[in-house]
Amino acid sequence: MGRKLWRPALIGMWAAAGWLAVADDNAAVSLLRGRVTDESGKPLPGATLTAIDPELQMTISVYSHPDGSFELDGIPPNAAQLRARLLGLQDQVIDLQNVSGPVELKLTAASGVDLQLQRPAVDRLGLLQWDNEADALNFKMMCAYCHQVGTQGFRTPEEPVDWEVMVTRMDGFGGLFRHTQETLVGRLIETYGPEAEAKWPEWKPWAAPSEDATRARVTEWSMGKKDDAMIHDLEVGKDGRVYVVDMTNDAVISLNPSTGERVVHSIPGGKQFDSEDVPIKGPHSIEGDAEGNMWITLALSGQMAKFDVKTFEWTVVSGHEAPRPRGGYPHTLRVDQKGRVWYTDAGMGVFVLDPAEDNKVKFYRLPAANQVRGGGRGESRGVTPYGLDVAPDGKIWYTKLNGQRVGRIDPELPDDHPDKIVEWQPPVFGPRRLEVGPDGKVWIPGWASGNFCSFDPVTEEWKVYDLPHGPDSLPYALGVNRQTGEVWICGTGTDSMIRFNPKSDELTEYRMPSRVTYTREVEFDAQGNVWVCNSNYPVRHVENGHGSIIKIEVK
What is the largest CA-CA distance in the chain? Predict the structure, then answer.
C-alpha cells in the first residue's frame, strides 16, 4: 500500500547548501588524488574529503593521510564537487567537472560565525551550568533524547516564538525535576540566547584524527523529505537493500545502495507520505527475520507490523495480548533464533510475538524495584523498558532507561522460576540500547553519564569505559559485530562513530562528514561494514536538512 518510487532530483539538499552544480557525465572522474595543506603548505592529516553527488543525493568521504595526501575512488558519475573539511579551518569546495589530475587544497583558519558553526554539540551542551550532577543528568535524560542541544538549529526556533513557548511545548516539562522546570528557560536563554554567544569561552578545535581514525570510507545517502523526516532506525536487508523507518511520515523507505533508488512504502492506516498531517502509526524500530521480512514497532498506535519485502504486503496486529486492541509504546525489537519477535514497550514491559502461532502475543511483567539483584534503592517514576537484544544462547536482555536497570529473560525456564526474569543495576546512568557479544558479554551505553560498560553474566562483573569527549557525549546506542566482537558506539553528541576493541581496550573515533549527525541504531552487513542512520529531530537542525543512511567501511 502506498508504494512510491523516489528518484532523487538535482534540486534539494545541496542546492539549499549552495553546492549545486550540473555534472557532465563525460567529464566525471572515478578516482581522485590530491593533497591538503594549510596556508603555509604544511600537510594537513585527518581532513575529511567528500565527493558530493546532488543527483543521487549522496556523498562519499575519505580522510587525508599523515602527509596530507588522499585517494578517493568509486566517485559516482554525477559527483559535482569536492569538499575538504577539518575542525578549526574553513571548508574548501571545488568543482569536479574539469578536474583531470591531482588536486591541491589549501585550508585557511576559520573564525567568528564560521568557527562557531563547527563547535560540536558535546561542547555546547557542556556550556550549560548546573548546581549538581543530579540536575545535569536529569536534563540530559529528559531534554536530549530527540536532538543535539545547543546547535544552531536548536538555538533558532522554527517560528518567531519566545524561548519559553518553544521549550515547554517539547514535553510539557514531563520528567524534569520541579526546581529545574522553574529555572530551565532562564538557563537556556543565558546559555544559548541571542546575546549568549559573545560570552562563551573560547573553543579550541579538537586535534585532527590520528592515522588509525583516517582509515575509513564513509558513504551517506539522504533519506526522506527535506526538513520533514525522522529516519529513526534502519536494517540491512537480505535482498541487498537497506530499510529505514520514517517515524513522522508513517512509512518504511528502502534504499538500493548500488543505484541510489529509494522506494517509499506507506503503512496502512497511517498518514499519507506527502501530506502535512500528524503521524498516526509512528514506526520506531525495524528488524528483519530469517525470510527477509521486516518487522516494525508502531509506537504511536501501539501495534506491531510485518512488511513483506517481496510482495509489499503489510500485516498489522495489536502490540498487546488479546483481546486488548493495542499496546502502550512498542519500542525496540529483535527476532530470536526461533523466529519469535521480542520487543520492549516503553510504558509496560517486554512482549514476544510468535508468527508461528498466528502472531500470538505474550506479556512479560518486569521486576519491581525491590527485586533487583545488583543492589540500589528504588526506581524513578517511569522505568521505561527500552533497549533489547537476543543473546547467542537465546536469552533476552533489556534495559530500563529511567529505571536504571539491565535485565534478562530466560524463555526456556518456567514462568514461576526465580531466575525467569532477573535485573541488575548498572554502573552507568541512563542505560539505553544494549547488545550482547558473541561471547555472551553484555555491552551497555550510559546515555546521561557519557560512557559505556560491559557485564559478564557468569561472574556478574561490570567494567566501565570512558569516551573520548567526556560525560556529555550522549552515547545513544551501541552495536556488537558478532563476527569480530568489536563494539561500535554512537557518538550521538559528537558527530562521530566510535569503534572499541575489547581485546586491547582501544577506542578509535571516526568523524562523520555531516554536522549534527545524531545516530540511534547500529547494524552490520555480511562484510562487517557498519550501517547507521542520522535521525536528529527536528531534521531541520541537520546541516543539510535531511535524515540519512550512513555506511562506514574500515580499511
Answer: 73
